[in-house]
Write a sequence for this structure.
C-alpha cells in the first residue's frame, strides 16, 4: 500500500505537523458550510498554489494524485442535478430533458457547488497529507498536545508492522492455493475470501503484538511517567508565521468574495 | 537527584500488551478500511453521500466494535478507533481530516456500553453502537454534502440501508471476535472473555456481563 506522503525539505515539510492542522482547520470548517461554487474554488486555487509553491511537490506527481480525486467528485456534478429536491429547482429555468429526467439550472449549480466543496476539502487535506510524515504527526501530538505516549508509540509500533502484514497476507494466500482453494469471483467470492483471510491474519497480528509488547516491557517502556525523545518537535517562528499567514489569506479571500456578493449563504443559515 | 519513580499499574491502566493488541487489530482492519474508504468515495460520488454513507458508515466502526467485544473494558472501542485513525492516515488522501470521523465514531461506539456501565455485551448493545455511527454519517451527508436538498426517496433508501448495515457490522464484529477467541489468540490478554465451547451459545462467552 502506498503512502501519500512525498518526502522533501520544503517550507511546508519543515513545519510542525500541528501548525498545518491549526492553519487549515478554520478554512475546512468554513468551506464545509458554503453553498456557492466561488468560495471552494478560491480555496482550491489558494491551497494548490501553496502545495506546489511552499511544498515543492512536483507538478506531475501532484496531478497524478489530484486528477483521480477530481474524477471522483465529478460524480456529484453528474448525479446531483438528477436527484435534487423539487423545491430547490421550482423557479429555475429548465436546461434540458432526457425522457423522465429534467435537468434545471439550479440543480446543476447545486451539483457544481457540492463537487467543488468536496474537492476544496480534499485539497486542504492534501496540503497536510502530502507534506507530513504520519510518524511526525504522532510525535507532535505526544510532545505538544500531551497524547499519552504509550498510545502514540503503540501506533508508531503498528506502522512498523505494515510490511509484515502484507507479507503475511501473501503467505496465507499461497497456503490456500497450495491446498487447492480457488479464489471465488464476484461479491460472494470476495466475501468468502475475506472470511478465509481475516481470521488467520488477525490471529497472527495479535500474537505478534503480544511478543512485541513483551519486548517493549522488557526495555522498561511505560515504566516511567516522563520520557525523553530522540526526535524533539517544537513550534518555531515559521509555524506561527504560517498559521497567521494562512488565516489572514483565508479571511481576506472570504472578505473579497463577500464584497463581490459571491459568498452566498452558509448551509446552516440557508433557507430552502 | 533520586531516580524517577516507576508508574504503579492500576486495574484501569492499559498494559503495553493491551495497547499493542488493540493497535494490531486497528492496523489490520485499518488497512482493509483504507480500501473500503476508496470504494466509499466512489459510491458517494455515484450514489450520493447519503446512500454512500449509509452503506459504508458502520464499516468504519468495525475495529472499535471488535476490540470492545474482545477486550471488554472501558475505552476499548474509543482507543481502537483512535489507533485506526492513526494507522490509516498515511494511506488516506484526507489525512487528519479523514481521521476525525474515526474519533467521533469511537465516542459513539463507546456510548451504549457506557450507558450499560460496561456490564452488557449482547447483540442489542452492539447494534445500538452501529446505528449511532450510521446516524452520524447520515447527518454528515446532510450537512457537508448537501443531502438535505436531495429528494425524499433517496433519503428514505439511505435510511433503510443505514438500518441494515447498522445491524450487519456489529454482527460481523461479534462473529470475527468469536472466531478469534475460539482460536485462543486472546488467552494471555488480561480482560479477554472465555472462549465459547463448540456448539455452545456464543453468549456463554460473556463472563463479565449479562447478555441482552
Amino acid at each position: 500500500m502506498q503512502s501519500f506522503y512525498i518526502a522533501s525539505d520544503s517550507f511546508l515539510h519543515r513545519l510542525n505537523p500541528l501548525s498545518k492542522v491549526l492553519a487549515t482547520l478554520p478554512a475546512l470548517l468554513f468551506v464545509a458550510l458554503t453553498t456557492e461554487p466561488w468560495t471552494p474554488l478560491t480555496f482550491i486555487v489558494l491551497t494548490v498554489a501553496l502545495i506546489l509553491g511552499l511544498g515543492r511537490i512536483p507538478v506531475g506527481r501532484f496531478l497524478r494524485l489530484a486528477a483521480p480525486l477530481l474524477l471522483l467528485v465529478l460524480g456529484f456534478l453528474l448525479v446531483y442535478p438528477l436527484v435534487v429536491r423539487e423545491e430547490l429547482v421550482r423557479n429555475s429555468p429548465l436546461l434540458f430533458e432526457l425522457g423522465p429526467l429534467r435537468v434545471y439550472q439550479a440543480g446543476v449549480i447545486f451539483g457544481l457547488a457540492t463537487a467543488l466543496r468536496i474537492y476544496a476539502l480534499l485539497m486542504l487535506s492534501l496540503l497536510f497529507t502530502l507534506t507530513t510524515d504520519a510518524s511526525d504527526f504522532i510525535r507532535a501530538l505526544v510532545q505538544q498536545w500531551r497524547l499519552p505516549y504509550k498510545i502514540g508509540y503503540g501506533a508508531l509500533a503498528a506502522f512498523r508492522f505494515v510490511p509484515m502484514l502484507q507479507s503475511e497476507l501473501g503467505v496465507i494466500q499461497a497456503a490456500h492455493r497450495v491446498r487447492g482453494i480457488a479464489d471465488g469471483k464476484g461479491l460472494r467470492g470476495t466475501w468468502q475470501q475475506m472470511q478465509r483471510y481475516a481470521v488467520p491474519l488477525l490471529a497472527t497480528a495479535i500474537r505478534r503484538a503480544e511478543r512485541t509488547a513483551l519486548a517493549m516491557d522488557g526495555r522498561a517502556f511505560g515504566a516511567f511517567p516522563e520520557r525523553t525523545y530522540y526526535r524533539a518537535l517544537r513550534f518555531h517562528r515559521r509555524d506561527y508565521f504560517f498559521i497567521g499567514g494562512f488565516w489572514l489569506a483565508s479571511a481576506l479571500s472570504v472578505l473579497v468574495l463577500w464584497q463581490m456578493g459571491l459568498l452566498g449563504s452558509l448551509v446552516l443559515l440557508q433557507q430552502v | 537527584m533520586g531516580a524517577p519513580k516507576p508508574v504503579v499499574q492500576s486495574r484501569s491502566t492499559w498494559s503495553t500488551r493491551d495497547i499493542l493488541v488493540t493497535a494490531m487489530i486497528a492496523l489490520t482492519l485499518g488497512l482493509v478500511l483504507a480500501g473500503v474508504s476508496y470504494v466509499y468515495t466512489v459510491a458517494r460520488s455515484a450514489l450520493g453521500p447519503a446512500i454512500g454513507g449509509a452503506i459504508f458508515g458502520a464499516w468504519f466502526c468495525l475495529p472499535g466494535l471488535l476490540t470492545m467485544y474482545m477486550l471488554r473494558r472501558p475505552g476499548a472501542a474509543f482507543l481502537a478507533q483512535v489507533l485506526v485513525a492513526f494507522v490509516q492516515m498515511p494511506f488516506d488522501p484526507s489525512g487528519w481530516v479523514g481521521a476525525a470521523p474515526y474519533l467521533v465514531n469511537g465516542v459513539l461506539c463507546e456510548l451504549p456500553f457506557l450507558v450499560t456501565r460496561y456490564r452488557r455485551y449482547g447483540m442489542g448493545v452492539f447494534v445500538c453502537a452501529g446505528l449511532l455511527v450510521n446516524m452520524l454519517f447520515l447527518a454528515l451527508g446532510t450537512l457537508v454534502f448537501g443531502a438535505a436538498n436531495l429528494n425524499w426517496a433517496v433519503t428514505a433508501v439511505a435510511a433503510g440501508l443505514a438500518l441494515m448495515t447498522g445491524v450487519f457490522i456489529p454482527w460481523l464484529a461479534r462473529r470475527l471476535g468469536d472466531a478469534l477467541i475460539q482460536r485462543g489468540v486472546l488467552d494471555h490478554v488480561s480482560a479477554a472473555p472465555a472462549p465459547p465451547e463448540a456448539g455452545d451459545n456464543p453468549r456463554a462467552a460473556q463472563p463479565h456481563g449479562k447478555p441482552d
In short: Residues 197-212 of chain B have pLDDT under 50 and may be disordered. Chain B touches chain A through 61 residues (CB under 8 Å). Chain B has one domain: 16-186.
